[in-house]
Specification:
The complex is a heterodimer. Chain A is mainly α. Chain A folds into 2 domains: 254 residues, no CATH class; 246 residues. Chain A is built from 24 helices and no strands. Chain A starts with 6 loop residues before the first helix and ends with a helix. The relative contact order of chain A is 0.08. Chain B is of the alpha/beta class. Chain B folds into 2 domains: 215 residues, P-loop containing nucleotide triphosphate hydrolases (Rossmann fold), CATH 3.40.50.300; 59 residues, Alpha-Beta Plaits (2-Layer Sandwich), CATH 3.30.70. In chain B, a hairpin with a 2-residue loop joins strand 8 and strand 9. In chain B, helix 3 packs parallel to helix 5. The two termini of chain B are 42 Å apart. Classes of the chains: A mainly alpha, B alpha/beta. Chains A and B meet through helix 14 and helix 18 of A and helix 2 and helix 3 of B. Chain A: Keywords: Membrane, Transmembrane, Transmembrane helix. Chain A: This is ABC-2 type transport system permease protein. Chain B: It is a peripheral membrane protein. Chain B: This is ABC-2 type transport system ATP-binding protein.
Chain lengths: 533, 299
Amino acid sequence: MSGITGTWPLIRLALRRDRVILPIWIVVLSVIPGSTVSAYEQLYPTAAARASLNAGTGSNPSVAVLYGPAFDLSTPGGWSAWRYGSFLALFIGLFAIFTVTRHTRAEEDSGRLELLGSAVVGRYAALTAGVVVAGASSLLIGVLIAAGMVGSGLPVAGAFTLGLAIAGTGLVFTAIAGVTAQLTEYSRSANGVATTVLGAAFLLRALGDSTPSASWVSWLSPLAWPQQAKPFVADKWWVFLLAIGVAVAVATVAYRLVPLRDIGAGLWPSRPGPATAPKSLSSPLGLAWRLQRGSLVGWTVAVVAMGAMFGAIADGIGGLVGDSEQVKQIMERMGGTQGLVDAYLSAIIGLFGMLGAVYAVQAALRMRSEEVATHAESVLATAVGRVQWAGSHLAFAVLGPVVLLAASGLASGLAHGLRAGDLSHQLTHTLGASMAQLPAVWVIAGIAALLHGAWPRLAVAGSWTVVAVAVLLALYGPVIGLTQAVLDVSPFVHVPKLQPGTEFVATPLFWLTGVAVVAVAAGLTTFRRRDIG
Amino acid sequence: MTTAISVSGLVKTFGRTRALDGLDLSVETGEVHGFLGPNGAGKSTTIRVLLGLLRADAGTTTLLGGDPWRDATELHRRLAYVPGDVSLWPNLSGGEVIDLLGRLRGGLDQRRRADLLERFDLDPRKKGRTYSKGNRQKVALVAALASDIELLVFDEPTSGLDPLMESVFQECVREERDRGRTVLLSSHILAEVETLCDRVSIIRAGKTVETGTLAELRHLTRTSISAELASPPNGIAQLPGVHDVVVEGNRVKFDVDTRELDTALRALTESGVRSLTSQPPTLEELFLRHYQDEQVGAR
């Protein structure tokens, strides 16, 4: 039996299990760039508008932090490569990581691979199957991106340079995930290590792209390669070969690691825990803290990094938008009516509010997953009351967003204030505007608590639907011209904009908070009365 | 003797399914009470009602003198529960879970904890996900047995334990009884029930079908008689409680309800008994009879 015996059945099993999620990823990632070429032509119809966009953003390092370097924005191809290059690279990286981990370490983690391993399956079969599925999908995405752009009338050479370079990034992260799957016992940590590498690659790219004197740093990051290939500008197609070379080298490491460990075990030994519980683990709140702290810390770090980056960009935002009236109009409708920078900051703060709502729902739904896993039963069979137990988790859904919005507000206010040379005013302004998002976030948290209490089976799907509707209405409702009555459904629409020149009205904050309190109270009351399990 | 658990006419429905259909249960303080029934009979549902996790639709339930739904938090200070399939938090060590559950119940006897860890041969430093099923069960057992409480509620606690650990468990339960604690033990393992339980209740399809001491229950089952007589038997088959009679000349074989044993033996002696073997009833027969009856009834 050779090491890869049984790979083909495993690939078919993987495709069968991923028959829904795989096509979604492939379609979403591959249709975006080709489909927005016409948007470019609408937003920047004239040569003059394109030239001014080129002059405004091409020289703005704070724009390059987020989107990457703009080599030539005067053609739809160059604009698409700049606008989507680094984001598609980021998402294909995530796709590759999740796919490889799902079919390698996650299978071992759950014990299913052991069942298969006792059948005729070679030692390298699972790794090969995961790598083949993620790698082939990456190549398919790359080819479809190129085909879509060619279909929109862009040059073939540039389209394939971009598409294949993005596929190459996918291949590199496929290989990286192949390595991280060997390191730890848990799929959650395998994903964690691989996404940390992805995050580091994003920071390297942001650093290199925004620092003209050290632009070579970008070449260290696979996320920068699609743009460094200069599609539609210089068409450096060999970047794809670079990616393949790196992917093969990294994958070789993964294959070398496989025989060094047992099935189910990681190369990094799982550390034993303490034999006794610390003092902090003596109450439902202590348990909730133990279960939720990792997620809260991770979210805080992420929003601080994002806040600092967005804040640093804010001052140069005028350059990004250029002279296009339409873009200005969209920005203003989304954010507010005063100056572009304030509109931008307002939009960013609104974005953090929505992220806060996502966190709040995730924290509240921990109750449901604890109940489904029968952990809740074990705790509620002790001298812990239901309200006490639910309250411990809801504390994170209510107070976690306070931490997140304070952290993101401080980080973006600090970064923006330092760059604008107006620290004290910008800091209080941004922090205040951030905190004003809280009542809207609490409404969402309250709805999640109510669903959990009254309709537990619908809690997960229902809560995420509520978040999606609230976010989409607030983000895209004004842009597509929905009526105010429809927009009013979203709590985020009612958050007052804290901008100079706008009168600050606190009333909505009070009644939003009131709605949230009623929802949480109703959630706890219904939870007290229902069956557990 | 006071009553630790008293349930009468308990009804619980899930949608259209009637999981409990007028169930009665009475557990005296200080006894080990076996709770038996085929899969799906309603044992776990009863236990979850007793723990205040489910709300009963009808019937009265008293647990340690309180109402298990209304006084749940207070009552839970005085009891410990071990489910049949223990699920542990993946990132907490076994020792942490033992301490956590013990503290949430209101305290843990540290010496007993150490003693139990040793007897169950359990490594408390492993993380939840790395324990086997049997070891997860041990974590919950140690947490329950080391808690300072009056009532232990076990729902098939030994599933996944090896025979050695099962005997450690039986030893522990006997110690608990000697210390005056009450134990409600839902189980499928007849040997376990036979050695541990003072009284048992058998339930089927959400109703109690038998309850009493093992001696009383044995009385309800049949004794197998095989005899060689001086003359052919007459009228044996017509006697009350006699079943499956086989007559071969002077030999006769039959089963008789144990309460009618006396009448049957009298009839035999009338024909003159040359030799006699009697096989006492086993619990297996009793349980099988109840379990199989349900399958017949379900058809």
